[in-house]
Amino acid sequence: MSAHILIVYTGGTIGSVEESETKSLRPLDFEQLRLQIPELDRISASLEVEALDPIDSSDMRPSHFVELAELLFERRESFDGFVVLHGTDTMAYTASALSFMLLDFGKPVVLTGSQLPIGVLRTDGKENFLTSVEIAAHRTVDPHTGEEFSTLQEVAVYFGDDLFRGNRTHKHSAEDFHAIGSANYPALAEVGVNLRFRHEALLRPKNLPSLATQLDPRVLVVHLTPGLGAEMLAHLLAAPGLRAVVLRTYGTGNAPSSSAFLDVISSAVTAGIVIVNVSQCSTGMVDPDLYATGRLLLAAGVIPARDMTIEAAVTKLMVLGGQHALPEALGAAFSEDLAGEQSTPGKLL
Ligand code: ASP
User: Fold this and answer.
1) 309 falls within a domain
2) Is residue 12 lining ligand 1, measured as CB closer than 6 Å?
3) pLDDT tens digit string along 64-110?
């Protein structure tokens, strides 16, 4: 029996055309995109489409995450897998948010898009789209029980021959076809002539699927630079209503050691702001014990985010912020691995 796949179209370059006057790209309706891919008729899966109001993904808001998560959760029982067509700019944020909002989803959710519009001769959109459908439809048979199940059971991103866990992704190139990377977690499959999944890298649900739709967007990212002094930091952390901060530190999680700087941080923590430590380095892990400066941040109450991406840390704080009113509870929940978004120290896969 062929797999039943839902395509969710949100916009992005894949479905864009050039406006004749300005030459800027603007996303089109799904029907116009569909006409550019006659190959879809030859796919063995049965496809249905749900087209949302198409947007450039730089317009994505937490309310869009909620719309998407609700749609996927409602349709979970009716489909074998899902492909979400999405702009590349914020794809890693949406993929991360969905992974935390749809815990233990247990079915494939593959986000994809393209660097060139689907109507352009050299487009990467067709391959990305068609292979994503194939991945979402892929099934594995248990050799012992004969039971058949979806091979992928988590939120992932397929882009430029790479399949990655969604909450490990980051857009690292504005022009390469290999635009999306996963610096701290390996690819979930080798995609070449054959599609070979790395079964040991795949996430498996531990509980029944759940849906979280209360997000708290009051999360700020503060990127340390040598010129950022205590006074300016204090202004940033005094933003009205601020709940949580992702502090982008140096190396293994280090920051200035002056007491003025650390006092600002510990006062913010005491005032109930949750601050987490994400390194500016894309590979490796925050290890607060390695340097005295990192240890000082820990003592000031900053929570190490290990090897989480910025996108995962921001969206995890938003999702958990909607569930935990108290900063202690939010901080404790943040430290737990929810959907394979962080590695265990000394156990990088
Ligand atoms: N600006 C576009 C978007 O994110 C870029 C893309 O899709 O590649 O919607």
Assistant:
1) yes
2) yes
3) 999 999 999 999 999 999 999 999 999 999 999 999 999 999 999 99
Kindly give the distance from the C-alpha atom of residue 64 to the centroid of ligand 1, in angstroms, as a whole number: 15
Q: In terms of domains, do 196 and 324 share one?
A: no
Q: Looking at beta carbons, which pairs linking 285-293 to residues 24 or more positions away fall under 8 Å?
A: 285/184, 285/252, 285/343, 285/345, 285/348, 286/249, 286/252, 286/253, 287/252, 287/253, 287/345, 288/252, 288/253, 290/252, 290/253, 291/251, 291/252, 291/254, 292/257, 293/254, 293/255, 293/256, 293/257
Q: Are residues 194 and 51 in the same domain?
A: yes
- Model confidence over 134-171: pLDDT tens digits? 999 999 999 999 999 999 999 999 999 999 999 999 99
Number of domains composing the chain: 2
Q: Beta 274-279 vs 244-249: how paired, if at all?
A: parallel
Of ligand 1's atoms, which has the minimum distance to the CA of residue 12? 9
- Is 87 a pocket residue for ligand 1 (Cβ < 6 Å)? yes
Residue 211 inside a domain? The answer is: no
Expressed as residue numbers, the domain containing 248 is: 219-335
In a domain, 156, yes or no: yes
3-state secondary structure of 217: coil
Please say whether the beta carbons of 304 and 254 come within 8 A. Answer: no
